[in-house]
Specification:
The complex is a heterodimer of chains A (305) and B (359). Chain A has 305 residues and is mainly alpha-helical. In chain A, 73% of the residues lie in helices and 3% in strands. In chain A, helix 9 (200-208) packs across helix 10 and helix 10 runs antiparallel to helix 13 (272-304). The chains are: A mainly alpha (305), B alpha/beta (359).
Chain lengths: 305, 359
């Protein structure tokens, strides 16, 4: 590990380009936004950096805190769904015959070759009033209706006089579903990596010694794979928290998340300092989550030693 | 290109360097000292030019036009705010022309290079309150905002904002525009105030009206109300007239009306942003667009109202006498142009919109 001490030149040469990249495209832009958050608007274009905390004070008003809270809640719900649905999928891939695995992983990854915006538009075509889900349901309804008529029960309107399409789009349900759909693979991949490494004999032992499947999962599998779960939770939760075009496209009249408010500050409202302050509050929350993960991970390592 | 992407906090310091950067921007061979390479970078709205206009211009003038698209004025403004990334010609709407003139983001036009302006453009558009003397902008298209609706699902003509802003009759089948100006502005109109009101009390009243109506609104559309209408997702939508006209061509059951309380009349313009690398070519292209035949081809394709009298005369009656495209004088008298309201008023409206969406 300390070979770099012996070859400092090689170390610095190898590090130069990634460091330069990190500074030019990550640290500097972020620092600019951070500085901007302490600015005051002066007219249309000019921002004076005065060190004011007004932007943060404004961002901490109940109006914006409620939107923050709602965003956290939505992101958490979507992450939980990803986690619950992710385990069986990761298990299925990990336990599949070896020659199938590459194809199953590919099936998980292929949608990623299509731009997320386009996939979100595709969801609109699937879920709208005159979309594929409702077309399918309507077809089933028609068949049931014909069957009832055939049985002589048509007059009772047992399934309603006519098909009523489900309202699947333009509400918070659609937004959560869109987020789950967009970020699901980020949950499955780390879970799969951990389950793949899992020593199967532990599970066999647990089952042999009389524990049921649930007990085996919670007492053996989960404690051994929760690291992957935590990674998955973090990389799903963080982008979900900042989502803005998913609520924009799929959301209804009450689906505004903090990402939408921030986007508007940089466009329609033309208030970059306030947008910067909101972004950084979101970032602090993210740092908090990451710090929590580091602490938890550190504690676990401590136990192992 | 890279150095101009560095965010600047003051435009003034930036302006000094604009000339140098603009010179550095045009890469590629130069034909002669002072002559421009035959290229033009055009930043336009989507589906907002004739089918073959760019090709025709290349045949006529030998200049190759590269077109990028923006979705709304906010995007256009945000993109040019930190300096022109290399565009020669842009299409801002009237209130943004006003903003951009104030912010010194547009470069003055040389009318002697645009003879078609005096020759073809209707008197009403030869001058404008938002750009006195038309020093910075040439009229491109104009129109109104109103209600697009599905005739078979709506009783009669929804000729009042009441049907989308203050009624549960069409509950769940209404889309409003999501921008802070559109929904709040129309609510102000419905309440009898000015679309451009900056009075906090009036804006508050408009906000309360929209919040009260929220349970009956299906979605605040991001300028895609016409698609929602066409796909049957909603039966009434607040939209730009041209957007509705485009879907009316596909579906006979759709119609457009400007409500009796009035609305806004807007004008999109052709303007050259400060620091444009090919201003000569931009003037040539503006003059080409203001030509009768080229203008007619564009208007015929995009179905917006043209300010070009000569072009309008070349087109059939179903365009040139269509009341959904060219509203009557009486309707226009009730409409007002959107004006730039200043940053404080803009913030007031944005906060009102945030509260509406959070309610």
């Amino acid at each position: 590990m300390d070979s770099w001490r012996k070859n400092p030149l090689v170390f610095w040469v190898l590090n130069l380009s990634p460091s330069a990249w990190l500074i030019a495209f990550f640290i500097v832009p972020l620092a600019l936004v951070w500085v901007l958050s302490f600015g005051e608007k002066r007219g249309l274009l000019d921002v004076a950096i005065t060190g004011t905390l007004d932007n943060y004070a404004r961002a901490l008003q109940p109006l914006y805190l409620e939107i923050f809270w709602k965003s956290i809640w939505m992101a958490a719900a979507a992450t939980l769904v990803c986690l619950i649905a992710g385990y069986p999928v990761a298990f299925a891939i990990a336990f599949a015959p070896n020659r199938w695995k590459p194809y199953l992983l590919l099936a998980l990854m292929v949608p990623f070759w299509i731009n997320i915006l386009i996939r979100t538009y595709a969801l609109i075509a699937v879920f709208r009033t005159r979309g594929y889900v409702n077309f399918t349901l309507e077809w089933i309804w028609d068949q049931a209706h014909s069957l009832l008529a055939f049985l002589g029960l048509g007059g009772y309107e047992l399934i309603g006089a006519r098909f009523v399409p489900l309202e699947l789009l333009y509400n918070n349900f659609a937004v959560s579903l869109g987020i789950v759909y967009a970020f699901f693979p980020f949950m499955v991949l780390p879970l799969y990596a951990n389950i793949e490494k899992l020593d199967r004999s532990y599970m066999e032992a647990s089952l042999d010694l009389g524990a049921g499947h649930w007990r085996t999962f919670f007492s053996v599998v989960f404690p051994l794979t929760w690291h992957g779960a935590l990674s998955g939770v973090i990389i799903v939760f963080i982008p979900a928290l900042g989502a803005f075009f998913i609520p924009d496209l799929l959301g209804g009249t009450d689906s505004q998340l903090i990402g939408n408010v921030i986007e508007r500050q940089f466009k329609a409202a033309n208030d970059w300092p306030f947008g910067a302050a909101l972004s950084f509050l979101l970032m602090y929350a993210t740092f908090g989550a990451l710090a929590l993960r580091a602490i938890v991970a550190g504690r676990k390592q401590g136990l192992e030693v | 290109m890279k150095n101009r992407r560095v965010a600047r906090f003051s435009r003034r310091s930036f302006l000094a360097g604009t000339g140098a950067v603009a010179a550095g921007l045009s890469v590629g061979p130069r034909f002669a000292w002072g002559a421009e390479e035959p290229k033009l970078n055009f930043y336009n709205w989507d589906t907002y030019i004739g089918e073959n206009t760019l090709g025709d211009f290349k045949d006529a003038a030998g200049i190759e036009v590269t077109m990028d698209l923006f979705a709304d004025n906010d995007e256009l403004f945000a993109k040019l705010k930190e300096g022109n990334p290399g565009y020669d010609l842009i299409v801002p709407t009237n209130d943004y022309v006003e903003r951009m003139i104030k912010a010194k983001m547009l470069s003055p036009l040389d009318h002697s290079k645009i003879p078609n302006f005096r020759k073809n453009i209707s008197k009403a558009f030869q001058d404008a309150a938002f750009d006195p003397g038309r020093k910075f902008s040439m009229p491109y298209m104009w129109g109104t905002q109103g209600i697009g609706y599905r005739k078979s699902k709506v009783d009669g003509v929804p000729d009042s904002w009441k049907w989308v802003l203050d009624s549960d009759k069409y509950s769940g089948r209404i889309a409003l525009l999501s921008g802070s100006n559109a929904s709040i502005g129309m609510a102000l109109k419905y309440l009898g105030y000015s679309y451009n009101s900056t009075d906090p009390k009036e804006i508050k009243a408009a906000e309360e009206l929209v919040i009260k109506q929220k349970p009956h609104i299906k979605v605040f559309a991001d300028d895609n109300g016409q698609d929602l209408l066409l796909s049957g997702e909603v039966d009434l939508t607040m939209e730009w007239n041209g957007d509705i006209l485009q879907v009316m061509e596909e579906d006979d059951d759709l119609a457009y009306v400007v409500p009796k309380e009035g609305s806004i009349v807007w004008q999109d313009t052709l303007a050259i942003p400060t620091g444009a690398p090919h201003p000569e070519n931009a003037h040539k292209f503006i003059n080409f667009i203001l030509d009768a035949k080229a203008g007619a081809a564009i208007a015929d394709f995009i179905q917006y109202a043209t300010p070009n009298e000569a072009a309008r005369k070349l087109l059939p009656d179903d365009y040139s006498k269509n009341p959904a495209i060219f509203p009557t004088e009486e309707t226009l008298a009730r409409c007002e142009p959107e004006v730039y309201k200043g940053e404080a008023a803009q913030r007031l409206r944005d906060e009102a919109l945030t509260r509406i969406l959070a309610a």
